[in-house]
Design goal:
Layout lengths: L14 E3 H6 L5 H4 L4 E5 L2 E4 L6 H12 L4 E2 L1 H7 L11 E5 L11 E5 L7 E4 L2 E4 L1 H8 L5 H12 L6 H9 L6 H10 L7 H12 L6 E8 L2 E10 L4 E5 L7 H16 L3 E5 L1 H5 L2 H16 L1
Parallel strand pairs: 5-6, 11-12
Antiparallel strand pairs: 1-3, 2-3, 4-5, 7-8, 9-10, 10-11
Helix pairs in contact: 4-5, 6-8, 6-9, 7-8
Length: 295
């Protein structure tokens, strides 16, 4: 018969070292195996009332599993409030080159010496600073994916793009060119990952660079904010993810776009299909620009 759940108040809603709480007499080994707890990592347990999201896992790794570890990369972004990693994704952390930790399931270990200026704390957890985190987001992923991550991080205002680009220029090493390329392509203005991907697609197609998050006005009157705009052509481009709300959201979006049309603007919509097969979208944008130029 399985042991009955027993939750001491000191452990309720928390993660902890199993061996430590047994030594302290808070739980017996049998009680630790009850349904009150779930094992996250070797000798690391959490109360089943705790929401074990990626932040909780990162904190468990850096505070309990590897107490000297520093949370880095996308995991660090999560601790800074930018959800770039899901609960099931491995936690990324850095340890000293002399650390003898073995490979761990659902943990990506990097052995790197971080300077004191690159590390801070979020509560009791060591984490890379926003600038160091931003630079790490430029590493290790394909170019567009890294630009998406950096754009999302920059949008939270934790660090500015000029600082990231300046720091990227000072880097050396095998991946410094990739980091600089990512920083050069980011703008921190996208309202969604797909908007970043759409912006990169437009640039590679050779279209004139649009203005992101442009405010359409009718004289001095505010009309709407659009994802992208070419003001000289009075042309707006919207990613179609905005239509995925309920009826009230649909009506609000329709009214907004009617107002944009009344102000003399045309609006083109892009969808996920256009990101995969962009030829039709690009041709439509070019025709709109040509028509306005010749008018």
């Amino acid at each position: 018969m399985p042991p009955s759940p027993h939750r001491p108040p000191e452990l309720t809603g928390r993660a902890f070292r199993g061996s430590a709480v047994v030594r302290a007499g808070l739980l017996t080994p049998a009680q630790l195996r009850s349904s009150a707890w779930r094992q996250l990592y070797p000798d690391v347990y959490a109360c089943t009332t705790l929401d074990v999201d990626h932040a909780a896992r990162a904190q468990a790794v850096a505070r309990l599993l590897l107490p000297d570890a520093v949370v880095i990369g996308r995991s660090a972004a999560v601790l800074w409030g930018v959800v770039l990693a899901g609960a099931a994704e491995p936690v990324s952390c850095s340890v000293s080159p002399s650390c003898r930790a073995d490979a761990l399931d659902r943990v990506v270990l990097t052995r790197r010496r971080l300077t004191a200026g690159e590390v801070t704390r979020r509560g009791s957890t060591q984490v890379t600073t926003p600038l160091r985190t931003a630079l790490d987001l430029c590493r290790g992923r394909p170019l567009d994916d890294a630009v998406v991550d950096l754009d999302r991080f920059l949008a939270h205002g934790l660090v500015d793009l000029a600082s990231v680009r300046s720091a990227a220029r000072g880097l050396t090493g095998r991946d410094c060119r990739h980091v600089r390329s990512v920083a050069a392509l980011a703008d921190g203005l996208a309202g969604s990952p797909q908007e970043t991907r759409l912006r990169l697609l437009l640039a590679r197609a050779g279209l004139p660079a649009p203005v992101a998050q442009f405010i359409v006005r009718d004289g001095a009157r505010f009309v709407a904010r659009v994802d992208f705009a070419w003001p000289e052509h009075r042309l707006a481009l919207e990613y179609d993810g905005a239509w995925h709300g309920g009826t009230a959201q649909f009506r609000a979006d329709r009214a907004r776009l009617n107002a944009v049309a009344s102000a003399g603007w045309r609006t083109v919509f892009a969808t996920a299909v256009d990101l995969r097969r962009p030829a039709g979208l690009l041709d439509l944008l070019r025709r709109h620009m040509a028509a306005r130029t010749s008018a």
